[in-house]
């Protein structure tokens, strides 16, 4: 990836959610300066560690149950706890000091923040377990970091 300009980095932060969805859907970071800037930000170890903590917080909220925590978007604690092993694997892959593909990091971010996705919506087309499995597969440090078209 080419070095990013300050304006690209600033815009990429402001448009983060939209760019994350594009990266998660498979757009390559090399396809635009904003996607490249966003990819560079989200794959940084500090950003991945923060996302891993967010996943750990989800597990903690699931264990507390609905009586002690009233999120704006309710979660099904039992369903999340049932996927704890996969969530822990996702957290481990996010915390690795090895580089991981931006596609996988964006998928993990989108999965956690999508209000109609399987974390919050048990009636969706994809189960939480299947979604986590797909994310974990894309967080493999052995995967190429850049598209083959380079």
Structural overview:
It is a single chain. The protein is an all-alpha fold and 150 residues long. It has one domain (6-138). Helices cover 60% and strands 0% of the residues. The protein is built from eight helices and no strands. Helix 2 (16-24) crosses helix 7 (102-113). The longest helix is centred in the middle third of the chain and has 20 residues, at 45-64.
| Shape, principal axes of CA atoms | globular
Note the run of SSEs as H and E.
HHHHHHHH
**Can you tell me the residue ranges where pLDDT is under 50 for at least 5 consecutive residues?**
none
- Residues in helix, %: 55-70%
Content of β-strand: under 5%
Mean pLDDT: 87
Content-based structural category = mainly alpha
Cα gyration radius (Å): 16 Å
Major sheet: none
Quaternary structure: single chain
Number of helical stretches of at least 4 residues: 8
Query: Termini, distance in Å?
Result: 10 Å
**Number of separate strands:** 0
Number of domains: 1
């Amino acid at each position: 990836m080419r070095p990013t300009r300050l304006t690209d980095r600033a815009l990429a932060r402001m448009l983060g959610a939209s760019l994350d969805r594009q990266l998660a859907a498979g757009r390559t970071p090399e396809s635009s300066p904003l996607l490249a800037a966003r990819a560079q930000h989200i794959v940084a170890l500090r950003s991945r560690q923060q996302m891993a903590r967010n996943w750990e917080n989800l597990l903690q909220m699931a264990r507390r149950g609905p009586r002690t925590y009233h999120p704006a978007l309710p979660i099904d604690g039992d369903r999340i706890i049932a996927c704890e092993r996969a969530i822990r694997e996702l957290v481990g892959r996010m915390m690795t000091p090895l580089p991981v593909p931006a596609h996988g990091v964006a998928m993990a971010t989108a999965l956690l923040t999508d209000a109609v996705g399987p974390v919050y919506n048990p009636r969706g087309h994809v189960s939480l377990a299947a979604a986590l499995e797909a994310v974990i597969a894309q967080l493999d440090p052995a995967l190429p970091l850049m598209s083959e078209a380079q």
